[in-house]
Amino acid sequence: MSFGLSEINNRVKGWPGWVLLLVVTVSVLAVGSTRTSGPQSQEERIELISKRVACPVCNGESVAESRNNASRAIRNEIDSLVRSTPLSDDQIVAGLEDSYGTEILLVPRASGFDALIWVLPTMAFVFGVAGLAVAFQRWRVQADGVADPTDADRDIVAAARQVDLP
Amino acid sequence: MIAASVNGAFGRAGVMLMLGASVFGALAVLYGIRKGDTKLLKQSPRYAWLAFGGILLSCVMMQRALITRDFSLAYVQQVGSADTPALYNFAAMWSALEGSILLWALILAGFTAAVAWRFRKNTEDPLVGWALIVMFVITAFFAMISLGPADPFANGAVGVSSGPGPNPLLQNHILVLFHPPILYLGFVGFTVPFAFAIAALTTGRLGEGWLLETRRWALFSWAFLTIGILLGGWWSYEVLGWGGVWAWDPVENASLLPWLTGTAYIHSVLVQERRGMLRVWNLSLLVATFALTILGTFLTRSGVIESVHAFGDGPVGAWFLAFFGLIVVVSLGLIAWRGDRLRSPGAIDSPLSREGAFLANNVLFTVFAFVVLLGTIFPLLVEALDGRRTVVGAPYFDRLTMPIGLVLLFLMGVAPVLPWRKASQELLRKRLFWPAWLGAASVVLAVLVGATGWAPLVAFGLAGFAAGAALRQLALATRRQGWRGFVGRANGGMVVHLGVIMIAVALASSNNFTHATRLQLEQGVEQDWQGHTFRLESVSENVNDAGSESALEARVLLDNSKVIVPAITTYLNIGIDVPTPGVRTGFTSDVYLTLEQGAQSGDTLVTIQAFVRPMILWLWIGGAVMALGTLLSAFPGSKRRRATDPVSAPIPVGATAAAAPRGESEPDPAGASA
To answer: Could you tell me the residue range of the domain that residue B358 belongs to?
Structure first.
């Protein structure tokens, strides 16, 4: 009985099982990520825009989170812009940037000096992955014994010879 | 310098005792090691007891000063008040800079004493000696901070007989009693593995002995840091009233940074224990973890970065920056000096192996830490180099850390089924099959309950996948070993993974599917929103017995079943308003209400900010599961090294490091299973 079960288990885990898995996952993901949960309400738009705008008097908090008067004023401004103008989210944020300056943006731009905040992490990731690739390459060469003996290897051999000699 | 009160006199005497005991302790141990004076070395624990006794005395005196409202001390003038309830008065000790350094010093001296006690029979071992020297030096540094730039026992202005009490945010939730001390236990705990790492570098005993000795210290410190961070999120959620748990605030980031490098360390250290590899890397991670706690303290205690937690600006900043520089220079210098002994002989055969997965994990955690560090200090860089003010907020961190988090979830699914050395495609196909189906089932379930958007759906799928891998491992281990299948490093680690997965799901849900609105509630009129009904019952104002706080409370009947009371508390002595949210917690979602400013007692119409946040409870449950898993993984697995075994064998001069892999001595309780 148990042999039968493990045999079935093994067969299920073959390529057809994996292909089925892939098909199911991809199609459900496609359905889930393309359908919309109805039109965005004005409240949701206000919330999303508020999260992109920095509180002008506290460092790093968005006006969605901050409870002070300056933030409340900007929230109210966003509120009225969303409710009474046809402006898009980006246009509203751009308008706020014009009146309050670039420090109102919670996400730094990708240009000028500020671009570094995007470039440096990307470079760190690329260097990390490249470093790993180089390390694995070196380990493979080492494991295959293809590499020339290093000084350390020669030291070991020399030390071993000295021990062997009386 | 004559103290104005007995509290000030004894308190400062205690700190001086700690400083003296630490300095003399370090010198005595150094001398003992140099001269081989075992008698002197055997006395070294006494210096640790003395230092601990000193700082304990200081803390008792500070508590006494707070309890007796001794307003002759500047610190009590700053955080003390006749009206503060006893519990918050107790916590007032760490509610400002000087007292928080005092708490740090107490925990540090406690750890030093614990190390001295744990290794009291090995005091003649130079490795233990050097570790104690490092601990003494760090203790002395904190004692100097407490005596100099952040003196909690400084005399206050004459004639002051009352104070404002702690920051209002620090006296309206019980978590203020637990979050800082537990977080500090985590920060300070990493001093112990750091001290042993420096000791190993100094003595040249770079085998795995020091790692094994500090494994549990690192693990418990990591657990405390994890719990501390989560409690901070909980506190933020319950107190700050913006409906979230994590704002990427600089102080939050400062606590996350050592957690990230610490998490990388507790994974990669397994490769060193097992294969004797990655020695420089592991040392660097430990140094980074410790140095980042000091850097974080500099960033948040010096006033260079503003944040809701930052304790003003003060001269301590320069001290911490100098200490940070010293740590980095000394550590890197030692690593460079010992470079020849740190080279490890082994090779990692294939990226598709347990050690390969750990390496990938390390790259990701390091990049994660880099992103957080860069985002935190970037405004400083821009201001220094470009002369502009700029802000880096949550959307930046979310955007960059989300993909890293997803890849980490994927690794959490793959890594546990990978054997050491090398895995075949065949083996992966078999072992990953059911975990992958659990992932697919999670996506299906998420879509069925209405989730949308590719990022959260991928997160749910990967979470299911990772949970499948962890459950598979636990199922195999318990089938073989019964209840013992839950203990030991590999199995306990899987329980930790399950906790992490719960937190990941909770974050993905609450970050993507939270609904927020402003409700205009009229007394007695029922209003519907997001499937819930809200009815305002009353708005009333209550002043506490002491007459120090006035709470404006709106009673809102939710779903005709439970009354939630969002409030605005006014601290009358200082005139500060603090909104307190009203929360109904549930397994699938929370309803979270805050009262908007401007309401008055007797109002029949109020504006309420309302949030429906899914899965928040699972953040705290996940945290508890992580703590449980850490405890389980600290238990011995199938084989335990006796505590009486020698700490570490010296490496003969001229020879390369021990070549034998450690695989035989440290069997993996559950790994490499079919």
So the answer is: 192-216+248-342+354-419
